[in-house]
Amino acid sequence: MLQKNKETKRKQPFTDVPPRYILWGSIGVVVLALLFLVLFPMLKAAKRVPPQERSSSEPQSEKTIRHPLTGIWLSDPVELPRVFGVMIDNQVDAWPQSGIDQAFLVIEAPVEASIPRMIAFFDQSQAVEKIGPVRSARPYFIDWNNEFDALYAHVGGSNEALDKIENGGTFDLNEYSHSTTFWRATTRMAPHNAYTSTERLNEYLQKRIEANLVPELLYESWQFKDPEDTSKSEINSKMIVDYWAPTYTAQWNFDAQTNQYVRFQGGKQALTLDGNPIKADNVGVVVTDVSVLDAVGRRKIRTTGEGKAWVLQDGTVIEAVWKKPSISQRLRFYVQDQELKMNPGKTWIQIVPSEFDVTFLQE
User: Fold this and answer.
1) Contact, 155 vs 162, CB < 8 A?
2) Which of 1, 75, 170, 233 has its CA 20 to 30 A from that of 84?
3) Band of the pLDDT at 10, cuts 50, 70, 90?
4) Domains of the chain, first to last
């Protein structure tokens, strides 16, 4: 009997719970269940959010300054880089060229027989193993080179160009005087077989720096903007530049997926010796005075002053004015007296004697 009473006393606290406690406990269970149903999907989704879409309170590297040559955003500022300007052969026997796909700027202009030649510009920090074929100097290319106080790499030159180098303070590198900075390929015939590299150009630059024989860097940057998003557009635009012979006709086709212009030469896509396509983020056209100097067909090209121009960006053709007040100042593009901002990356500029040498196609 005593044992039975003890068992009864143990059970009693559980059976005599007041009804209000039972009610509140039930409500609590329901609330917890609802919270779980609401919060669990949210927590699960948060785990799937890519890092770039998460709260801005997460530490991120600030990109507040652009590279002075390419306009690409940087986390930290850089000193004004030294620039290499390399004369590039564009005669058909020199195709395909090497390294020009990596130049941050290329300026293309006619020489003898209206065959175009190029000056390709490289930042000293770039690693480009093979650049060329390297050809001879012309006076107007010197003017564009000296915008950057650049080391001008070439193989000889016209008499006028060599005189200009000697008397004009150009930071010069002639293969005839410094052959170790260049090499001759055995797979091609001269004069289309001279090459250099940024490594060799930097070696020469370092010697000049140690001898305190380098110009002060005074060049200024272009203005840059962020590119448009054209990836979902159906823009199909082209520009054709006629350099007399059909073989040298240059064509730029816009690729909306990459927001870049792809180069074609003589009706075929232009590729480097390594098979890389040649692309540009901006393509400029400069219309200026071009005249023939002699029976050989050497040209005189006006590089300073101003004139008609176009700039291709983001699949659009922008009518502009080019201006270059002096030899030492940058060539720039303007729209209604405001400097045109360029897309960051690579730029290619075509020099032509007439606006009728340029055709724009929109499909």
Assistant:
1) no
2) 75
3) very low
4) 66-362 (3.50.90.10)
